[in-house]
Structure formats: C-alpha cells, structure tokens
C-alpha cells in the first residue's frame, strides 16, 4: 500500500513539474539575458572609468597649458613695457645721434677752415714760415709754443671728431640692434601665445568630446541598470510563481495520497471484518447426523446477551476498555504516538526556528570579521578581471576573495553574486552583507558605509554613502 502511495505522489509531482516547465524555461532565458546585460553594464562602467581618467589627465594638461599661457602673457606684458622703455631710449638715442652728427659736422667745418687758413698762408711750410718770421729768439720760442699749442688743439679736435664719428656709429648700431631684438622677442612671445591658445582650444574640444562620451555611457549604464532591475523583478516573480506551483502540486499530491491511503485502509478493515464475521458464523453452526444445519436458539440468546456488554469503535471492532489506557501512549501534544512517525510537524518547525535564530545570531559576529578582514586591503589597486587582494582585483573579484577566506563560495561576476545567499532589505542590512548595484558589488560595514574595489583611479577604498548608487539587492552570506 505504501508503495502505491509513493508512486502516486511521484506521478503528481511529475505532472506539477511539467506544469511549471514553461515558467522555468522563461526564467532561464531571463537569467541568460540578465548575464549579458550585466556584462554590458560592467563594460560600460569600465569605459566610463577610462573616459573619466583620460578626461582628468586632459584637464591637468589644460591646466598646465593655461599656466604656461599666463606666464607667456605676463612675459608679453613685461616685454611691452620693456619695448615702451626702449622706445624712450631709442628716441633719446636718436636725439643724441642728431647732436653727435651736428658736432661732427661743426668740428669738420672748423677743422677744414683751420687747415685751409694754414695752407693759404704758407702751404705745407706754413708752420715753419711762422717761426722764421720771428724777430728774436723770444718771439720764436713764443711762436713755437703757440704753434705747439695750436697743434695739440688741432690734434684734440681731430680726436674728438673721430670719437664723435665712432659714437654716432655706435649709437646707430645699438639703436638698430635693440630695436631688432625687442621686435624679435615680441614676435616670439606672440607666436608662443598663439600656439598655447591653439593647444588649449584643442584640449578643451577633446575634453568636451570626453564629456559627451561619458554622458552617453552614463545614459547607457542607466538603461542597463533599469533593464537589470526589470529582469531581476521578472525572475523573482517567475521564481515565486514556480515555487508556489510546486508547493500547490505537492500539497495536492499529499492530499490525494492521504485520501487513497484512507480509502484503502477502510477497505482493508471492512474486508477483515467481513472475514472475521464469516469465520464466527461457521464456528457456531451445528449439523445433525444427516448433515443438516441445526439452529440453536439458546446459544444465539447467550451471544446476544454477551454482545450487550461489548463496545465497538466506528469500524465495528470491539473495544477493550480495560486495557485501552495501558496499551496506548500519547505525546506532549495529546496525539497518539505512531511507531512509523514519532516526530510531530510542530516539533520539526520549532527545531528549525531554533536553528535559524542560532544561525542569525552567529552571522552578525562573522559579518564583523568579514569587514575587519576586508578593510585591511584598502589602498590596494583596482585591476579589471583581477582577484588578488594585494596585487589587484575588480569589484566582484574582491568580494569573491574576501568571502572565500570565510568558507563562502561566490560566483565570479557581479551579476551572479546578486543571487547568492539570502536577500534582506537595506534597512535590515548588517556588517558583512553584500550590497549589489547594477554592475557593481560592495561589502557593507554598517552605519551606511561600504568597502569595495571602486575603480582604476581610487582602487580598493571605503565609501561613506552605501546608497551612492541604486541598490539592486542586499544579500546575507554569513
């Protein structure tokens, strides 16, 4: 009989499995789509990190170029001041040059007249004739002294004339050189300013392109995150429907099995009673010498009287009141103890509840241990695809390696980790819980803080706001 019940239960369960197979198939398809969406979201966030880093580098270059441009502009302003001052010097030099040229011309004319007068008086022997015409030695000496003085004066005038000519030439050369140098420096600085401005404009254009790409990537990430949330909700709905259908099928199978067992037991008891009745009738029947049945009315009356003192149960079996209380045992709930099933459902549920409370209590301490272990790796690098807590890990590689230290085996990707453990609300989150975002995971530290492998710029770090992004799920693992 038990074998038939088991077979019937299995048959009903197989029917229930066929009923929910369509839902399970759709659930598998959604999980595959969710895995693809999660990979796309991870790739998008990685691209956003790369773009943000490139944009940061570009902004540093722009800042440096701006600083250089400011220096060049300051140099140009300084040079303009120098040019203005030099222009004043040049004007003065021009004036000095004009004076020197006048002095040169005047000296030239004076010397020319002096030489002309000398030669007109005596030609090449003018100085000699002047001394010969002296009346006495004293006049001769006087004329000779005067001649020497005139010669020295003429010599000084000649030297002065030569110096004036040199000064004029030097002033002119200096003027032209200073002016050319200043003009060249000014042109150079203006070219540098132009080149720097062109570079800044180009860098700013590239920065704007990065901003557009980051904005587009952010839009894609938001769409992927929304799609992940929708897929997760749909999977949870299908999973709930599938579990409910399986439970309903199991309940119906158990009810049907119980009904069949009750019917078969009742039929067996009825057959047993009928067989016992036939046996008793055969024992009480007497036959005569010819083989004919003898009707004994006295025995029948005795049996009737005996029956008056006998009690029967609902199936027609006699009940022995004297031995009932001695042979039947009861449990603490007042139920008759069945040797085939000595543990009641209430006992099992009570035991399960006690085990659950114990597990929850120990999980809190283990969660703090997870946090203490994870925070010692803060500052280590973020490496895409990495799982090393010291050499570099990404978000899911970091959480996988941390929980592995406590005997918790997690899948590799952030999407797969969203289905690990038991889901709890963020309001009930405890230290050591896994916080799941769209394409990202972190370890909850308590007080709204998380520790996670953030990005290639920040590495493994502690963030003070666990809700800085949309939280998809919170998973209790320890």
TrEMBL record:
Residues 48-103 form a coiled coil. Pfam families: CC_PcsB (PF24568), NLPC_P60 (PF00877). One of its GO terms (biological process) is proteolysis. Residues 355-367 have a biased composition (Low complexity). Residues 273-317 have a biased composition (Acidic residues). Keywords: Coiled coil, Hydrolase, Protease, Signal, Thiol protease. Residues 364-478 form the NlpC/P60 domain. Residues 1-24 form the signal peptide. GO terms for molecular function: cysteine-type peptidase activity. Residues 246-367 are annotated as: Disordered. Its EC number is 3.4.-.-. InterPro entries: NLP_P60_dom, Papain-like_cys_pep_sf, PcsB_CC, Peptidase_C40. Residues 246-262 have a biased composition (Basic and acidic residues). PROSITE patterns: NLPC_P60. This is Putative endopeptidase. Belongs to the peptidase C40 family. It is an enzyme of class 3 (hydrolase). PANTHER family: MUREIN DD-ENDOPEPTIDASE MEPH-RELATED.
């Amino acid at each position: 009989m038990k074998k038939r019940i088991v077979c019937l239960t299995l048959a009903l369960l197989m029917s229930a499995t066929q009923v929910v197979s369509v839902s399970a198939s759709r659930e598998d398809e959604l999980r595959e789509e969710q895995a693809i969406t999660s990979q796309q979201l991870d790739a998008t966030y990685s691209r956003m990190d790369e773009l943000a880093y490139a944009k940061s580098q570009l902004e540093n270059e722009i800042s440096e170029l701006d600083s250089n441009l400011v220096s060049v502009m300051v140099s140009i302003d300084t040079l303009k001041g120098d040019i203005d001052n030099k222009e004043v010097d040049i004007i003065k030099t021009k004036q000095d040059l004009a004076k020197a040229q006048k002095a040169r011309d005047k000296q030239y004319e004076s010397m020319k007249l002096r030489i002309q007068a000398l030669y007109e008086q005596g030609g090449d022997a003018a100085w000699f004739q002047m001394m010969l015409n002296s009346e006495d030695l004293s006049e001769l000496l006087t004329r000779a002294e005067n001649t020497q003085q005139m010669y020295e004066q003429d010599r000084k005038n000649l030297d002065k004339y030569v110096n004036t000519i040199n000064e004029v030439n030097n002033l002119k050369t200096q003027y032209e050189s200073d002016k050319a140098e200043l003009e060249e420096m000014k042109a150079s600085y203006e070219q540098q300013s132009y080149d720097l401005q062109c570079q800044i404009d180009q860098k700013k254009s590239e920065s704007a392109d990065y901003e557009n790409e980051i904005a587009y990537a952010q839009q894609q990430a938001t769409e992927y995150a929304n799609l992940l949330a929708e897929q997760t909700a749909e999977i949870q709905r299908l999973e709930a429907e599938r579990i409910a259908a399986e439970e309903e099928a199991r309940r119906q199978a158990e009810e049907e099995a119980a009904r069949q067992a009750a019917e078969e037991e009742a039929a067996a008891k009825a057959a047993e009673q009928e067989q016992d009745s036939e046996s008793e009738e055969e024992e009480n029947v007497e036959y005569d010498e010819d083989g004919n049945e003898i009707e004994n009315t006295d025995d029948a009356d005795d049996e009737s009287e005996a029956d008056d003192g006998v009690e029967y149960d609902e199936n027609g079996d006699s009940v022995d009141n004297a031995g009932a209380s001695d042979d039947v045992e009861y449990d603490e709930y007042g139920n008759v103890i069945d040797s085939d099933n000595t543990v009641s459902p209430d006992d099992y549920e009570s035991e399960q509840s006690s085990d659950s409370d114990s597990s929850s209590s120990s999980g809190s301490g283990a969660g703090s241990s997870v946090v203490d272990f994870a925070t010692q790796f803060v500052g280590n690098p973020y490496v895409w695809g990495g799982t090393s807590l010291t050499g570099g890990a990404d978000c899911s590689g970091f959480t996988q390696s941390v929980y592995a230290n406590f005997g918790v085996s997690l899948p590799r990707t952030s999407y797969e980790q969203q289905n690990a453990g038991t889901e709890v609300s963020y309001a009930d989150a405890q230290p050591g819980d896994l916080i799941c975002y769209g394409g990202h995971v972190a370890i909850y530290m308590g007080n709204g803080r998380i520790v996670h492998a953030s990005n290639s710029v920040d590495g493994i770090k502690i963030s003070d706001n666990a809700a800085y992004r949309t939280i998809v799920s919170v998973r209790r693992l320890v």
